Amino acid sequence: MNVFFILFSSITVLSSVAVISSRNPVHSVFFLILAFVNSAGIFVLAGAEFLAMILLIVYVGAVAVLFLFVVMMLNIGVDEIKVQAKKYMFSGFLVALILLLELIFSFSNLDVIYQTSNSNFNKLSNTHEIGKVLYTEYFLPFQIAGCILLVAMLGAIILTLRKREGVLRQNITEQVSREKKDSIEIIKVGKE
Asked: What residues have CB less than 8 Å from 116, skipping those under 6 apart?
């Protein structure tokens, strides 16, 4: 287990340094995703698989969306992307190989990791334990937090729905009540 910790932590540190030292923002995002994946591996080694799952879903998902926005805002041409892809093909394969080897090592020694971290196999996982506590002891605060988030989301939507001049709006009643004769016009073309 110490070998996996050293592997995950060293790659996390190296990719974190690469995030702040990279000049290209797209490369920084890739190194940040690599750091998050390795941090999730450290969480799995510590027996906190729920935190690892949340880290991957929330942060890597959010970083992937951020990556899309960065690419859209930079307006990089297709020819430049092809040149950059050829230029960094080796480093991309190296990162993919490192991730693949980590996954192979993790899944091949999964039973050894769980035997050292959990002495009792009949014990529920972290996710089950968190679910039990969240939906029994903290059910009311959990529901209140959900209602507060719903009200905040509705408030943000309502604040942005003000009518402004010059902005085209969709009128659903006009669209639904539209008939064939209003939308299609048959024009007879004469012979020349």
From this structure: 1
* pTM beyond 0.90: no
Burial class (CB in 10 A: 0-12, 13-18, 19+), 38: buried
CA–CA gap between residue 41 and residue 105 (Å, rounded):
11
CB 121 within 8 A of CB 56: no
Torsion on CA atoms 52, 57, 60, 61, rounded to nearest 10: 180
Q: What is the pLDDT of residues 52-101, one digit of tens each?
A: 888 888 888 887 777 767 766 766 565 666 677 777 778 778 878 887 88
We find that the CATH architecture of domain 2-121 is: Up-down Bundle (1.20)
